[in-house]
Write a structure and sequence with these properties.
Oligomer: heterodimer
CATH topology of one domain in chain B: ABC transporter involved in vitamin B12 uptake, BtuC
Structural class of chain A: alpha/beta
CATH class of one domain in chain B: Mainly Alpha
Number of helices of chain A: 17
Strand order of the largest sheet of chain A: 6-9-10-3-11-12
Strand content of chain A: 25-35%
Shape of chain A: globular
Number of strands of chain B: 2
Largest sheet of chain B: 2 strands, antiparallel
Structural class of chain B: mainly alpha
Radius of gyration of chain B: 23 Å
Largest sheet of chain A: 6 strands, mixed
Chain lengths: 512, 388
Amino acid sequence: MAEDFVIEMLHITKEFPGIKANDDITLQLRKGEVHALLGENGAGKSTLMSVLFGLYQPEEGKILKNGKEVAIRNPNDANALGIGMVHQHFKLVECFSVLDNIILGVEPNKLGFLQKAEARKKVVALSEKYGLRVDPDALISDISVGMQQRVEILKMLYRDNEILIFDEPTAVLTPQEIDELMEIMRGFKKEGKSILFITHKLNEIMAVADRCTVLRKGKYMGTVDIKDTTKEELSRMMVGRDVQLQVDKKPAHPGDVVLDVEGVTIHNDQRKKDSVKDVTFQVHAGEIVCLAGIEGNGQTELVYGLTGLEKLSGGKITLDGKDITRESIRQRSKDGMSHIPEDRHKHGLVLDYSLENNMVLQRYWQPEFQKGGFIQSDKVREYSDKLIAQYDVRSGQGSSTIVRSMSGGNQQKAIIAREIDKDPKLLVAVQPTRGLDVGAIEYIHRQIVAQRDKGKAVLLVSLELDEVMNLSDRILVMYEGEIVGEFDPKTTTVQELGLYMAGARKQGKESK
Amino acid sequence: MNKKKLSHSNLNSSITSVLAALLCIVIGMAVGFLVLLAINPAHAWGDGFVRIIKGGFHDAPYGVGKELANAAPLIMTGLSVAFAFKTGLFNIGAAGQYTLGAYGALYCAIMLKMPWYVCLIVATILGGIWGAIPGFFKAYFNINEVITSIMFNWIGLYLVNELIYQNGTGPMYDVRNTRTLNLSKNAEYAQSIIPDFGLNKMFQTNSTTIAIFLAAAVAILIWVILNKTTFGYELKAVGLNKSAARYAGINEKKNIILSMAIAGALAGFGAGLYYLSNVSQWNPLNSTSLPAMGFNGISVALLASSNPIGTIFSAIFISHISVGGSFLSTKYYPTEISDLISGIIIYLCAFSMLFRGKIHSMLFKNADKTNVNAEPAPAKTETKKEGK
């Protein structure tokens, strides 16, 4: 052994019916390094990690721990080898305390009676050592997402894991929290723990990783030293072609007011509080206004209110001079509102319908597609084929593909095609690139800018600050249901936005 | 080219469904045979199994006529359940809707002496109302339709029994037979009986009417509504994804109520077909069991994978083995044995999804591989560009 590898996955091949998810992939993790695993969706990152955790048995290849071959048949084997993971979606019991969650599965006991005092000491010590600042007695349901993530981290530390895997850990964090997480990772490194960092965000890799392994479509593209590479090179390795990381857009020429929101308030009956409080803003033709904020600060509800999915408890919405406050969803759609919904599986698509049926989801009732209540299936097919060609939506069987079988990126493209082709006056796009890979993101961003340049008003809701900074002409930050600041992306910084998003600062009520 | 592909894949899935249903039937029959063997091995084959398989043909043409007369309402209750399934609802209340339909039909026939088609329409409307009420609760208060429709089954049964019986003094009640008045015994009810166009003569029965053709026609109509109209598009969208339907501006509350009302109407129509063909009369003293027709509808729908056209065939099949069961000699077997066999078949239908998957992958292994995985099919141009 020339080098000191703590875990080696050598020439792993894992096949599923019809697809090689991992094709001869090698990943070598050094002791005390932060190793990034980079790849688009469907590149095989999750499969590779599932192999490491014993959830899948590879057809070929072997796994070495400290130079010795090991067999990992199930997650318990992986745990025994000191491998721990923070999943993208946390695996926590909401109504348990932090401490209870940490010891869950390895409860210290004497004759079946819990011995929490010991566990507590260990948790507090670990928390201090790495600066995690977690209160062991708080309930999970009461703490922030960032804190919940730290509980997941503590779970690994409590089990004395040496190899820590982070699966897309920054997706749910504010810029400040991301910085803190990076600091925590560096702390682990100093202690000699090895970190595998799964992500598709290049900035974070550049900031914290030592080396990076890149996968593309199940194949191994290589491992590079971060100090010898650039973001552009990494993205080229990941996508297979040059990618424009910066959106190319001309200055905006805002026209008349298209969307006028006045004092909108929405009451949440379940939580018994207002999730949107007296929000007022305008979106003009030919500009992209972005609602930024951390998840759960009322953006979702505000969009529901605008699109008619939820009733307002106060305020007024005007679309192109017409009061639509009490209009139905269908009527708003007729009046020129398009909506790319946040949750494409819940709202955006009928997954068990064919692609063509989904393409007309907003228009099947129009005279173009029906005659006397009978759907003109040839017209629908024709239209769907046109959109598929125009927006490059890829699927197994074209228009007759069941949408459930399509990849997330292509599902999203189908929604975008449908909503843009309606030729709306206002396009409401909520996290249009969530969970998509770089290539698809680039495409969708270009479409949105093109809509703006055609003189449409665009309201973009995004949690990704890069996207916010890149795309918008004006930024509104939402915190706890209120708009706490309005910014010009050219003159503000991510850090400044972060402070407003976290509620640390607030502008006066001068924003319109 | 694309059109061909579509019909091809549709055809594949229908073939698969039919084969899965047939597989359920074959295995169910085999298990049923084992049960016959267990009860009475000496007579299991000739006096047992063969008679069930022969169904109505054991005593043709009478048995066949009886089979068809029973199949007609079964198609309707099957359609009722299948239609609700297609729109994402479980209509376990077909029995209650059927009960109300029976009352409507008999009231119009006996009390008002109306022509048969009017009686049928009234039966349909009453069934529809009985379905719409649970639909309303589901739509506006999100109360599970299964619970409400089960309660409405019993409410309907007691209500109808009471309306007919009235302590034995009800004008529709015939004390001697402890049932409602027999429509064919009295010439003044003749206009209320569904015409038979010689079918009774052909089958040597007195209850084989054109009901079976009416039921089949309705099944086809329902298929057209579900697959060809914007109304069907909406109903199915609501069934498959209520949130997305709402997002698309479909009034999902209205659709839920409508779809339960239609399901109820279908069951009510079925009751009309049964009682206006005078297959039997209503017994208001039976207060412990709901009409079996309602629950058998669930079996019919399951066996047909909720396909409206499929319900025609699965209803005839269920009716076939039930009639077969009734020809079993009670010396050797209880008549319920056919219910047991159809029960086993239906139970296997729960596995039919599994069968369907297996059959599909066996038959069409190569046909739609691309569909199996959620990965995007890489476009040809791109692979070329990469030029490995």
